[in-house]
Amino acid sequence: MTVVTRFAPSPTGFLHIGGARTALFSYLYAKRFGGKFLLRIEDTDRERSTQEAVDAIFEGMAWLGLKSDFDEIYQTRRFDRYKEVVQQMLAAGTAYHCYASKEELEQLRAEQMARKEKPRYDGRWRPEPGKTLPTPPAGVQPVVRFRNPADGQVVVRDLVKGEIVFDNRELDDLIIARADGTPTYNFCVVVDDWDMGITHVIRGDDHVNNTPRQINILQALGATPPAYAHVSMILGSDGAKLSKRHGALGVMEYRAMGFMPEAMLNYLVRLGWSHGDQELFTHEEMIAKFDFDHVSASPSRFDMEKAYWVNHQYLKTADLGLIAGEFDWHLRRLNLDPANGPDLKAVIEQQRERCRTLLEMAEKSKFFFADLDGYNEKDAAKHLTAESATLLEALDHALAALPDWDVPALHAAVNGFAETRGLGLGKVAQPIRVACCGMAVSPPIDQTLFLLGRERTLARLKAAVSFARSKT
RNA sequence: GCUCCCAUCGUCUAGAGGCCUAGGACGGAGCCCUCUCAAGGCUUAAACCCGGGUUCGAAUCCCGGUGGGAGCGCCA
């Protein structure tokens, strides 16, 4: 049997971190067993579903590289099928019409709560042998309810939580089709998972309580229930639940913060899952090693510091071309022209060790791609002094005389310059940094000047000299 | 309220009864290296929620408590 998993978000917002991890686990599990992974848009709630959200989810999935093996599926395009199954169940007696109004049900719930009972449908329209049903009120469109077994138990063998037992007495008859005829969530999932041959349902653990009902519906349909894996949720760093109001960010916002998609995946896969002490995984390793035996049942917190660290590991080691694509995106976002400067890969090679994010890298590389917009105040005060002006002026001449503008030549020139003057390299390099980069932080000075190029370097040295002299 | 889930350093976790005087990683502290910032190397502080059992032996199994969380919609 080939494994088929699915990621089934409802398009009511962007793809958040928890959803991304669920998608990743589903994807990895399918790939691990040479199976298929599909994306299904659960848009049966037409009030809340939006096209923007659908697009946002696709965008997030694409950025992360979680490709579906099929075209996306929309539940709204499967209404005929759901109706067909509802009719089937009605005919089989596993579902029935219920004419209770919303007001009526609300009152029922209120009464039950007051009596400290679990609020649930009381089965007033549920057909029983020998029971006389009320007469349907005129002009009321009924909903369709599933006839849940009255007793017995449902055992969910959850891949992460183990065996969970539910008493059927705790389950009421849920609505599977609204008065307007549209199907509801719990029903659509069941029909879809069944029709699409889903073998493993991997989802957030806020769904565990739905699982026994879904299993009952499946059984009423004569279908074999899939395996379930309920993954616990991801909390904010303060341990509070993530929500739009509280720190829930879309995956694309992590892109804006400067994360590599591969790093994001790596951080996410380790959140709740482990493989011994291993922290870093290639895409292939994730696929080969992922399993539910080592998925934690308890919720975990999103730790930004660790995420940054993982990202940094990727920046330090990933293929330059791969990084360049994202780096380019960030430069443009800062209104910089990637073409107006050194080769991106060469810049990345020099900056990758000192930046935890691509955003940071772009910001620290501005001076390679645009004219200086002034000097960092503190750095200039410290390093662009009257005496360093003399130094920089001499350096300007020395460097201008260089026959070749390459790293060894620049290295020799700057070091030799410092040596002949009996100065430590720092005394020379720091003023150059501020002059050429606008600040006292940059890659090694020889590399920096090389990448900056002769023209820009010499011009900036001259500008710094007059700047230093202009301040009294 | 009812049902269900969860519980190892601040955080992510290793740990499937003896290998645990509890390991790794992030973050923290300190030292070394150093042209800046980093990176790197070394050292260090830091945890089995509590109480009962089971067992020769429990972080690991069972029960109870406590504390968190989820669900209880004609939402998904």
Automatic annotation (TrEMBL):
SUPFAM superfamilies linked: An anticodon-binding domain of class I aminoacyl-tRNA synthetases, Nucleotidylyl transferase
Positions bound to ATP: 244
Record keywords, A-Z: Aminoacyl-tRNA synthetase, ATP-binding, Cytoplasm, Ligase, Nucleotide-binding, Protein biosynthesis
Catalytic activity, EC: 6.1.1.17
GO BP field: glutamyl-tRNA aminoacylation
UniProt main location, coarse: cytoplasm
Domain of life: Bacteria
Location of this chain's protein in the cell: Cytoplasm
Biased composition (Basic and acidic residues): 116-129
HAMAP family associated with the record: Glu_tRNA_synth_type1 (MF_00022)
Function (record text): Catalyzes the attachment of glutamate to tRNA(Glu) in a two-step reaction: glutamate is first activated by ATP to form Glu-AMP and then transferred to the acceptor end of tRNA(Glu).
Family: Belongs to the class-I aminoacyl-tRNA synthetase family. Glutamate--tRNA ligase type 1 subfamily.
Protein name as it appears in the record: Glutamate--tRNA ligase
Source organism: Sinimarinibacterium flocculans
Lineage of the species this protein comes from: Bacteria, Pseudomonadati, Pseudomonadota, Gammaproteobacteria, Nevskiales
Gene: gltX
